[in-house]
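Issue 218. Parser rejects a valid record. Input:
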Amino acid sequence: MNIALKDVLRTVHLSRASLHRHFNAALGRSPKAEILRVRLERAKRLLAETELPQREIASRAGFRNPEHSSDLFKSNNGQTPGQFRAATKAAKKPH
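Output the parser choked on:
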């Protein structure tokens, strides 16, 4: 899942400005922000549901650089991928 804005533009046959306007009108965010949101959600799902290493999760979520993806994850979720995984696992344990 390594979709990029250029892939979307090639598929929808719109100018970058038109695509941006349509996304903002429909979702209230840019196409780039939506791609990032989807990548981060994929990373969250993989962290919660698998034991894959973070490097593999970053790659499967569409990030080229695991360190950068970790920084983005933390800035958007308030915790590192490792902290998120630990909290998710702890929440799933029966009490």
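Fixed in the parser; the record now loads. The longest helix spans residues 31-49.
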